[in-house]
Design goal:
With about 475 residues, chain A is of the alpha/beta class. Chain A is built from 14 helices and 13 strands. In chain A, helix 7 runs antiparallel to helix 14. Chain A is globular. Chain B has an eleven-stranded mixed sheet, with helices on both faces. In chain B, helix 7 packs antiparallel against helix 14 and helix 9 crosses helix 11. In chain B, strand 4 and strand 5 form a beta hairpin. The chains are: A alpha/beta (about 475), B alpha/beta (about 475).
Amino acid sequence: MTDLTQASAAELSRLYRKGKASPVEAMKAVLARTDRVNPAINALCRVDAEGALKAARRSERRWRKGEALSALDGVPVSIKELVRVKGWPATMGSRLTEEAPADADAPAVARLREAGAIVFAQSTSSEYGHKGVTDSPLHGITRNPWNGERTPGGSSGGAGAAVAAGLGPIAIGTDGGGSVRIPSSFCGLVGLKATFGRVPAWPPSLTGDLANTGPMARTALDCALMMNVIARPDARDAHALPADDTDYTRKLGGKLRKLRVGFVLRFGDHPIDIEVAALVTKAAHAFEKLGCTVEEVEAPFPYADASRAFVVHWLSALQRLLQLHPESRHSEFDPNLLAQAKAGQRYTLQDVVNAQVTRRELALAWNLFFERYDLMLSPTVAVQPFEAGKNLPDGPEGKANILWSPYTAQFNMSRHPAASVPCGLSRQGLPIGLHIAAGHYRDALVLRAAAHYAEANPATFPALPEAKP
Amino acid sequence: MTDLAMMPAHELVRLYKSRKASPVETTRAAIARIEAFNPQLNAFQHLDPDGALRAARASEKRWKKGGKRLSAIDGVPITIKDMVLTKGMPTRMGSLATDPDGPWTVDAPVAQRLREAGTVLLGKTTSPEYGWKGVTDSALFGTTHNPWKLDRTPGGSSGGGAAAEAVGMGSLAVGTDGAGSVRIPCGFSGLFGLKPTQARVPLWPTSAQGTLSHIGPMTRTVRDAAMMMNVMARPDSRDPYGRPDDEEDYLKGFDKGVKGLRIAYSPNLGFVEKEKIDRDVAQAVENAVKVFRTLGARVVEDSPDLMGLDPRRILNAHWQSNVAILVKGFSPEKRALMDPGLLKAAEHGANLGQEAVVAAIHQRQQVATLMNIFMAKYDLLLTPTLPMTAFAVNQNAAWGGDGIDIGWTPFTLTFNLTRQPAATIPCGLDREGLPIGLQIVSGHARDALVLRAAAAYERVRPIPAPPMAHQI
């Protein structure tokens, strides 16, 4: 029999429907694998085995009676610790957060439950999701199942590591500057940051309208199945887009031919790993075989300005933590977070307002880019997964490389949909991600491009990795 | 025969179709009114009668047999606020600090859509400098007056558009609204005005006020505003906040009325001190609410719980800090030409400190979330548009305020923070004969529902013109 932990959500659903597997069996398999693998990768910081099995039994009855709530009924899903799950504390990777359990599910969690998915675990994040790797004062270091010495990326690194390791086929992450796409790239997954407002969220994030809730999975189809559920409306999000009833799975099948693709290898003057450049360039040109025209073009906005504006947005938002928590406890923050929040305090009003102005100009520049091109392709991250426990990878001259993630945050600023899809392994056997973005509200097109690419370039991956302790 | 200049646009185009009137005749009638009233009202920053007549003649050909009209409002004379870029016409932002020589080479999306629709642009209407206050005067062009009572302000900052629209100097007007600048002048000047859902009417160049900024129609009938929305609310890539193209027809379901709709009536929006609301205003709004009950709506009195957050403080921090940066962009020589009130607001903003501003940005999200949760229970929310009626000209704010605190218009500014659609419709006159406005609010992207509800009210309480409009 198939190892159910290796099955995608879509496959599980098919097995359930045919009666060839049951949600209880799948849940048990995932729990057993979690027991075995999680200690080595530290991806899940809370596992509710009892609740999960109860939910699995309810789901099993629904499938038997032919009353499944959705294609995700009975599918195990983990939720990043920045996202509220009723009855669990929203720990945020922090020692300073309340121990009190949340009294309501965040919108995406509520929708998943309504769809019958089994919310079985909480996944790790860097503290308040402030950095693109995953270690925190509360939970320690999360590791990449492809290589336990390496980081899974972050801040949704727990989600990335869990899905890659077979601890549930799907996960909910959040993305304020790349935090779904970076771990998706580093862990060999498909992850989508949808158009801002497409996936309702609550409560409002510290980082405001940079923050997005998004799906992470091993296939584009699973991301589409998740979008069908989590993109449904929720009154608690004042930025939520009107429900448009898009069927994301149906839209995966549409044509890709004749699309205009703009391939941007570099967003500016930043280093790029030679293997990342080679694999992503190959992947971009593979879109020609799919019937698209691919042009190598430059990013439409000066990188230094974009980068500066993002940093000002990010750090000035983090400084709120210093206002919200008593000074006596500031020493308990991740030193990296504390330094960033303090840097945020030093900005002037002019810095903050200028950054907002730059953000609008950047968004406009990308909007005009997407008039010329249906899709933007780039690397998701400029480096390979680096040493776990470090905030930054090593640069060329022994210095830390602060420009290792130059791509993702621009689309948080501009609110465009963007996904990462695996495009190969480096010589060291580490996953590399292709970044796919499109115009506002074309989320379905982004997933379709990811699905078509993956379908035309199969066997990119060996069997699912076991973590090396 | 009725004066074409005061005729609703939707009736005008019917006459065009049956060739009982022509765009040239209408444009001439509007120009005649401009000659008669503008010297007293001072509603225009720029006038282009020759260009308007050229456009009208071109439209006239399209309405003739075999011609192809460009839209349902082809040949209708319009005015656009001085804050909106128009090709070939100066856009001064009400400021002596802007370059009088242009170049004026490009249309903002809304101007472009209205031109593509074949409308006839008469000119640019007055605004205070960069739309900074809720009244309309500036060193560039002087003071704009209220056609209902000349010693009163028409409100602002789209005060020129409102004064012009009220007396038929144009059939349709375009205003902008960052804290109430469409709804304040429509409230004070007795017009219908809609602040659509943010970015539903695309905005470019991006405003110094970011997503507080909105563009909306100002009209003498609700149907005319819906017709304008059908033209204006179309996507444009230049607005990075542009909403999905839903191809909404704002006239669809327009006549369905309010029967069965769930409506919350909030006399003070839960936070406005009751003693600040003029008793005539409170009474007129109360009476208007009764009309909605009579029309079959399910009205309950209910107010959102904003958990102690004060939208006035939050909006002040946003716009003061934004104007601080705006003003810094000018040389000291140019700054010396600017409105002392605006400079004072900018100075105030510069001293707020970024922590306070970042906190206000977060609080804006919280208010928006709380309002959203409140609105989930209702289709519509009714409030007064303003706590008072039109006050004397040449004051920066109501109650003798200096205008730095925009809190005198609490009902309007709340929905700039939340980005919801909000309209004002006249609902009576006060003891001095000045118009009172009822504000009608709905959830995001439910602009058509706001129009539909306003239309239902208008059918039983038609919008009167100011006496001045009949004195030609």
